[in-house]
């Protein structure tokens, strides 16, 4: 490690003040991505602003037809939340399948969304559910938030304060996970909100999370796994690496989409 200063503000407002004052400062949430990155010298902030004591970034509440999740909520808190389990069980299921218990008890929804790892689970839920990412400065629709590999619409000094998920009538998630890291080789989140169907795929896109319009159109006719019969995702534009080539990942997109719809419909 190398020298950096450590700060632990008591609110997101104080954190924003520190971020504005310190040059090359970085926010620290669960640290599950940031600390390994610093150890590998891929990031070298001069100051760490730890959000761990910011009470205003914690908590999960239902507000009308939405679920509001504080940015510092851990994956375990989302998975175990009675509110999330009741309103959007597919989201609780997703959170319960992130990494292992250590990761779930340290990693946060804000950190995961801000990091936008192409194999992370939450980006698929945000995009499929039509979530709103709320920062200390503005509200950003998920459609506009995930802009590329590890890229988001966040600007310098912007802090995610919460993620707002609309309560939909049906939602489900299925992932084929890398057995070592548990990240998604392919993960698919499906959501039905009135006549609006959204299918979002993580782990497979060269540019990160993306929607699959052909599956959305097929499911619009009837929201059932059978509606996807014969539908294949092309391998063009799909990731290939030592774990799976593009053809295999493309095949998994179809399989995971069927499983996610089956979970959402209880069939
Ligand atoms: C072994 C292992 C297995 C994992 N498996 C999975 C998996 O299966 N699925 C999955 O989705 N993820 C997985 N993860 C990732 C993990 O779930 C964390 O979500 C992820 O590392 C980032 O969250 P964090 O809270 O640790 O953020 P940090 O590492 O603290 O921060 C990550 C980045 O986001 C920024 N940031 C953090 N919070 C905010 C905020 N509120 N506003 C603005 N910027 C912010 C930081 O500055 C940093 O750049 C795994 C991680 C590990 C180590």
UniProtKB/TrEMBL annotation:
Q: What is the lineage of its organism?
A: Bacteria, Pseudomonadati, Pseudomonadota, Alphaproteobacteria, Hyphomicrobiales
Keywords of this entry: FAD, Flavoprotein, Oxidoreductase
Write down what this protein is called: Carbon monoxide dehydrogenase
Q: Cite the Gene3D superfamilies for this sequence.
A: 3.30.465.10, CO dehydrogenase flavoprotein, C-terminal domain, Uridine Diphospho-n-acetylenolpyruvylglucosamine Reductase, domain 2
Any one Gene Ontology MF annotation carried by this entry is: oxidoreductase activity
From what organism does this protein derive? Bosea vaviloviae
Annotated FAD-binding PCMH-type domain residues: 1-170
One Pfam match, by short name? Answer: FAD_binding_5
* InterPro entries per record: CO_DH_flav_C (IPR005107), CO_DH_flav_C_dom_sf (IPR036683), Diverse_Substr_Oxidored (IPR051312), FAD-bd_PCMH (IPR016166), FAD-bd_PCMH-like_sf (IPR036318), FAD-bd_PCMH_sub1 (IPR016167), FAD-bd_PCMH_sub2 (IPR016169), Mopterin_DH_FAD-bd (IPR002346)
């Amino acid at each position: 490690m190398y020298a950096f200063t450590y700060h632990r503000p008591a609110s997101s407002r104080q954190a924003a003040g520190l971020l504005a004052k310190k040059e090359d400062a970085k926010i620290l949430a669960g640290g599950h991505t940031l600390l390994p990155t610093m150890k590998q010298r891929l990031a070298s902030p001069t100051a760490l602003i730890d959000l761990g004591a910011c009470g205003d970034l914690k908590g999960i509440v239902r507000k009308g037809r939405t679920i509001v999740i504080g940015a510092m909520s851990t994956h375990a808190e989302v998975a175990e939340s009675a509110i999330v389990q009741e309103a959007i069980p597919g989201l609780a299921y997703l959170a319960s399948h992130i990494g292992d218990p250590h990761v779930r008890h340290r990693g946060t929804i804000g950190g995961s969304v801000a990091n936008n790892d192409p194999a992370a689970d939450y980006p698929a839920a945000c995009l499929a559910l039509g979530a709103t990412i709320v920062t200390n400065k503005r509200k950003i629709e998920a459609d506009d938030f995930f802009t590329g590999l590890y890229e988001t619409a966040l600007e310098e000094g912007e802090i995610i304060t919460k993620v707002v998920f609309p309560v939909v009538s049906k939602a489900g998630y299925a992932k084929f996970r890398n057995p070592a890291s548990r990240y998604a080789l392919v993960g698919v989140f499906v959501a039905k909100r009135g006549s609006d169907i959204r299918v979002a795929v993580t782990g497979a896109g060269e540019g990160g999370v993306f929607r699959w319009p052909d599956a959305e159109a097929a499911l619009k006719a009837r929201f059932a796994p059978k509606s996807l019969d014969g539908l294949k995702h092309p391998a063009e534009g799909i990731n290939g690496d030592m774990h799976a080539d593009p053809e295999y990942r493309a095949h998994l997109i179809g399989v995971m989409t069927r499983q996610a719809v089956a979970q959402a419909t209880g069939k």
